[in-house]
Design a protein that fits this description.
four-stranded antiparallel beta sheet, seven-stranded antiparallel beta sheet, 3 helices, Pnp Oxidase, Chain A, mainly beta, 13 strands
C-alpha cells in the first residue's frame, strides 16, 4: 500500500454493482484513477435542519465574479435541500478532516451527530477545523440526466489552518506524496 494512503471503511460508492457495459466500466475505472480534492457542501433542509455531503466535483468557475460549481445526484438525500435553498457552504478539506469527510459520506441521518459543526452565517452548518469555508448563493441549477450542476457565487468565507490536501483516488483517501 502507498505510504500516503489512508485506509477507510467502505463508502456507499464501494458497493458491488451488477455487471455493466464495457464502456461504462471504462468510464468508472477512468474516473477512479483521477485523483480529486475532497470537499463538503452543507445547507439547511426544508425543515431547517442541517444537511450536507462529501463531494469530489468541486471546481472554480471564475474569479470575477467568484463562482464555483459542484455536482449532485438528484436522487441524493441532500438534493431536496439543494434544490430549494438559496445558500450553501463549501468547505475545503485537509488530511486532518478525513473522519468528517467519511461521516458526511455515510448515513445521512447521522451526518450532523456530534460537535464537528456549528451554525454560521444564515444559520448554515459550518464544519469545524477545515482549511477553508465559503458561503455561496446558488445562482443556477442545471439538470443533466439524473444529476445537477450547481453554480454558486461566493459571498463570504474564512481560511483555516493549512494542511496537506485530502484527495480521493481509487476509492481511497490519500494525502499528496512526493512532487512529480
Amino acid at each position: 500500500m502507498n505510504s500516503s494512503a489512508l485506509p477507510h471503511p467502505p463508502l456507499p460508492s464501494d458497493r458491488i454493482e451488477p455487471d455493466v457495459t464495457e464502456d461504462l466500466a471504462a468510464f468508472r475505472q477512468g474516473f477512479r484513477r483521477h485523483a480529486a480534492g475532497v470537499a463538503i457542501v452543507t445547507a439547511l433542509g426544508p425543515d431547517g435542519g442541517p444537511v450536507g455531503f462529501t463531494a469530489t466535483s468541486l471546481a472554480s468557475l471564475s474569479a470575477v465574479p467568484p463562482l464555483a460549481t459542484f455536482n449532485i445526484a438528484r436522487s441524493a438525500s441532500s438534493w431536496p435541500a439543494i434544490a430549494e435553498t438559496d445558500w450553501v457552504v463549501i468547505h475545503t478539506l485537509g488530511v486532518r478532516n478525513r473522519s468528517v469527510a467519511e461521516k458526511l459520506a455515510g448515513d445521512n441521518s447521522k451526518r450532523f451527530e456530534g460537535d464537528h459543526w456549528y451554525p454560521g452565517p444564515h444559520g448554515l452548518p459550518i464544519i469545524k477545523d477545515v482549511t477553508s469555508w465559503m458561503v455561496g448563493r446558488i445562482v443556477e441549477r442545471i439538470p443533466v440526466h439524473n444529476n445537477a450542476v450547481v453554480v454558486v457565487q461566493i459571498e463570504q468565507g474564512s481560511i483555516g489552518d493549512d494542511d496537506n490536501a485530502l484527495l480521493y483516488h481509487e476509492r481511497t483517501y490519500l494525502m499528496p506524496g512526493d512532487p512529480a
